[in-house]
Queue: 4 jobs
Job 1
Amino acid sequence: MKKVLVTGALGQIGSELVRELAKRYGKENIISSDIRDDLYEKVRPYSTFAIADATNALEVERLIAKYRPDTVYHLAAILSASAEERPLMAWEINMNSLVNVLESSRVHGCSVFVPSSIGAFGPTTPKENTPQVTIQRPTSIYGVTKVAGELLCDYYHYRFGIDTRGVRFPGLISNDTLPGGGTTDYAVDIYYSAIKEGKYSSFLSADTRLDMMYMPDAINAMIKIMEADPSKMKNRNAYNITAMSITPEDIAASIKKFMPEFELTYHEDHMRQAIADSWPDSIDASAAKEEWGFSPEYDLDAMTKDMLDTISKKQK
Ligand code: NAD
Ligand code: AKB
């Protein structure tokens, strides 16, 4: 049976990942960890919880030495919009925490999952059907840390034989924990606002096209890649994955199928618009499909239906 440590476990992805990992491997085999404990109730029924600052090498080493996981999902990070507001802090958190996790994993022989992002691409990357291997010159500090992270994970694999694996996530849409300061957050906020107020004002323009995916597909992908046969993986640390390439207008049209009275308006947010404009419109996920069987289930309308149903039940 696997023993798994999740860092950044109280975030948008971690809180849902911990629940699914506990279902598969048993609560007693899951350790969740974060720098804060305010949302600790979310993971408590599914794991042992430990507070640790992932930028502190000693704290990471103690955590891994104490619980002896065989797999680490390293999710502690700062997302694109928050990163752009405090670039040095983003570098410190995104890079130092990764080095600490890789170093302790090297010493204790853990496999490591590290998520990259569509943010690892930039304005000179081909925008349509972005290839798996292509130009990566991002213009956001978040993107710089994501490219550096992909390379560092490659290095630990080739130099030390560490079993590092990862995906480039698109924007993730979920209905449990709110997103933590990203450029794609509008695609989550729009559903909450639709249920609460019947309208939404988007900070990205009507035609801003980005890749997105529903959280259940993201969680399945994370577990699937860590269980896959590594001998077939030519692109270990940064597989493009996506389920849909959509604009705010597309989401609004999908919401209107279930709530015809829904209204979408727009306001400007220069920083997030510039970040979004530097990212691809659509990425090519064929390597993930061929090499480890990535296969998302939700399209836009299926996701919209589930988001609206779930959020309205929670708000009753
Ligand atoms: P999030 O912001 O919701 O959660 C990150 C968690 O990390 C938070 O709970 C935070 O408290 C914790 N954290 C921050 N600093 C820490 C530290 N020093 N030590 C320990 N914990 C710390 O982020 P998320 O959306 O869950 O993203 C997780 C990972 O997935 C990140 O690497 C992110 O870049 C990547 N990713 C996310 C998305 C998305 O749409 N959510 C898309 C692409 C990639
Ligand atoms: C963000 O917008 O920062 C994240 C991501 C796509 O990496 N959701």
Note: The pocket of 2-amino-3-ketobutyric acid (ligand 2) is lined by residues 79-80, 117-119, 142, 171, 182-184 (CB under 6 Å).
Job 2
Amino acid sequence: MANPSLLILPGDGIGPEVMAEVRRVIDWFGANKGLTFDVSEDLVGGASYDKHGTPLTDAAMAKAQEVDAVLLGAVGGPKYDDLDFSVKPERGLLRLRKEMDLFSNLRPAQCFDALADFSSLKHDIVAGLDIMIVRELTSGVYFGEPRGIHKEGNERVGINTQRYTESEIARVSRSAFELARKRSNKVCSMEKANVMESGVLWRDVVQEIHDAEYPDVELSHMYADNGAMQLVRAPKQFDVIVTDNLFGDILSDCAAMLTGSLGMLPSASLGLPMANGRPKALYEPVHGSAPDITGQGKANPIACILSFAMALRYSFDEGDNADLLEGAVQQVLADGARTADLMGPEGGTPISTTEMGDAILAALD
Ligand code: NAI
Ligand code: MG
């Protein structure tokens, strides 16, 4: 069988710096676990604009459609702030998400023991936390029509429309139920069915998909405002949370920050299964290009490395190797390795991006 294929798009700012560490991790799995990927690399964002005048070339887009998974660093930076909207670095990422139809955005909130005191919540509330928010990413109020600002009489009116079709709700709920089966088999669906018809439909369709296809998974429903409250009150009651684009945007940021630094947070965006059964997939850290620390060796590579761990788990069915990599990250944190973003008020000497990579490789060994 052919090796699984990966397209690496390091992008801008600290993207290439953190991706260099991921490449070493990928090489480690090739050398030590017989897990060899066909890796290709291309440009995205400002890096692509600088060379080609576009944030993503058609060739790079076509390549992304062909490979088993895409790994992306970050895009953007002040250098590109004044560019026309149509060629802004972010457009490269949006094009990937849209053309690959990546409707299911997975954002884990996992508390690494060594960082439990880093959270703004009490130690006991977050210690051992491991939840996954599944956010619908390609529809809902961010895309619904009608939209815009117009004049009614002598005042302006702003309009956005929350719109979901049955099939859009069905496919993201399937994605959540599939995930739950690989975890603690529990899904909580969040909407506002008490005040929104789209929420009523959401609740009905999630329940129908559950009853017909996933009766073995434990399903509950919660209003999203209560969900927000519960996330900070007792987050460990959840395993997988599935919700729409808008609520998911807010709830996933909230949940993610329960656990510490932006430099720690991975994500996956999944689409429909390809011919080989693997989902269309793009993995990326949640953070941006961090221009304030670019080129200084200060970036924390863990978010990007954990994004590769998600690829192992969700694209390549390599759950054991994903556990191994996540365990290595736990290990180095427990041993006290800290990049600058993980320094607490007590201070200490931070290690560099490469030194964090070294530590993780040593832990893998
Ligand atoms: P950012 O995530 O790049 O940085 C926010 C803060 O967190 C900065 O102080 C940064 O130094 C720090 N930080 C982020 N990642 C870190 C890491 N791995 N290690 C250590 N510290 C880290 O967000 P910001 O500053 O709002 O945006 C900067 C640029 O990135 C903008 O051009 C923005 O449009 C772009 N961006 C791109 C994203 C993407 O590619 N998916 C997501 C968010 C922002
Ligand atoms: Mg957001």
Note: The mean pLDDT is 95.
Job 3
Amino acid sequence: MVEWTEQERSTINKIFGSLNYDDIGPKALRRCLIVYPWCLKYFGDFGATHNAEAIQKNDKIAKHGIVVLHGLDLALKNMDCIKATYAKLSVLHSEKLHVDPDNFKLLSDCLAIEIASLMKSDFTPDVQASFQKFLAVVVSALGKQYH
Ligand code: ZNH
């Protein structure tokens, strides 16, 4: 089981408590799809092309970015059993969506970059360390049901 210090718990809760999901979710997913264009193939029915402007303007991508961010609430509310909490979502991404699990890490890095640019000097190395640990546990849990 992953151990969390009180400091880590409070830092992670503070970050998420200050986030506007409707803003940061779309930004993180768009960044991921623009920087790592192969990720777009999983969103075929969203109708976006490999073009930054099309990705920025796509409402379905924006909405899905919000869904993904709310997906992180699961981990936030269940920090002591993240692996079990994501079992279903892991099966979905593996067996139904066939998302290469390497991409979870890429999206989590894009989210870190968006949060860094929002928080600026408040995103200290210490804060980043807690945040990256949280995301690493989520990424690992999402990849757990892959065979
Ligand atoms: Zn994912 C879906 C989360 C990543 C792709 N996702 C989804 C959902 C959720 C999530 C919550 C919904 C589900 C239901 O409906 O039930 N994701 C998530 C998270 C993460 C992710 C948390 C990390 C962090 N994804 C991802 C990636 C990708 C994806 C990276 C690719 C690249 N997802 C996806 C898809 C889907 C999902 C494709 C489906 C969509 C639709 O709607 O169609």
Note: The helical segments are 6-18, 21-35, 52-57, 59-77, 82-85, 87-96, 102-119, 125-142.
Job 4
Amino acid sequence: ESDTDMSHFLDIHKTPPEALRSILTSAANMKSARAGRTRGAKDDDPALEGRMVALIFEKPSTRTRVSFDVGVRQMGGEVMVLSGKEMQLGSGETIADTARVLSRYVDLIMIRTFEEEALLELADHATVPVINGLTNRSHPCQIMADILTFEEHRGPIKGKKVTWLGDGNNVFASFAHAAGQFGFDLTFAGPPTLDPEAEFVALARSKGVKVEIVRDPVEAVDGADLVVTDTWVSMHDSQTTKERRHNQLRPYQVNEALMSHAKTDALFMHCLPAHREEEATSAVMDGPNSVIFDEAENRLHAQKAIMRWCLGV
Ligand code: CP
Ligand code: NVA
């Protein structure tokens, strides 16, 4: 049987704006309630007591893996980390059957996988909430943490200009989903071969926000409140494309010269892991406008709030 109060967290555009806002408020409250505590201390209100969470990884991870694990423990729950390779996921049996089986053992599933279809099949057949921990197509937990981070430093993101440099990838896609839901404008600058999926751009535009696709990085960052980039080669990209991608993306490197064209108080973000001196220089990553480690920390707080929302606790 399924818990009627449960919700999946599959993508930012699939979660109602009021729910997204309440998740961010809850994340900020949980974060401030823990100020000064040791990392392993339990929350005063351990909302996941008696709950068992499975974290499934079909790709490498540092932040997602550790932040979900620590978050569950802080909330008093139990957690297991599973590697897709060691499971019967989609090879020994259908993903639908894995979903049915896991739903008899655990209360919540987080999965990082390749094809979005695998995530959706799992969610369709699980009777417990499923959280998207990154697919080839999106990375919603990251952008919830990024918005939490932006608002901590600069206040409401509504009406601000976010500029993305580089590959129109899965992390960009979640920014596009978020633009429509949170009401910020988004500019993409990169080579035409690495443009974002038209569907995501159209969706954001249909919600009344401005989404621009430009080729000139300087024009793109003009007036930006937030400048974001990501690795030039994602985990699902073939290594054979590496050289071509590097050649095409080099003009979009975020360096101090480029940042000087954004607003003077523009923040810099990168979801990490980063290749220093490729997509961004260390001068920017470690500079005064960079909030990359706040973003990493906020994965923890945002995901704790996402898990509570999924379970309705
Ligand atoms: N940003 C992010 O998701 O990092 P990991 O791949 O280390 O989880
Ligand atoms: N775009 C990157 C993000 C890693 C967190 C990837 O998919 O590999």
Note: The chain has two domains: 12-138+299-311, 141-295.
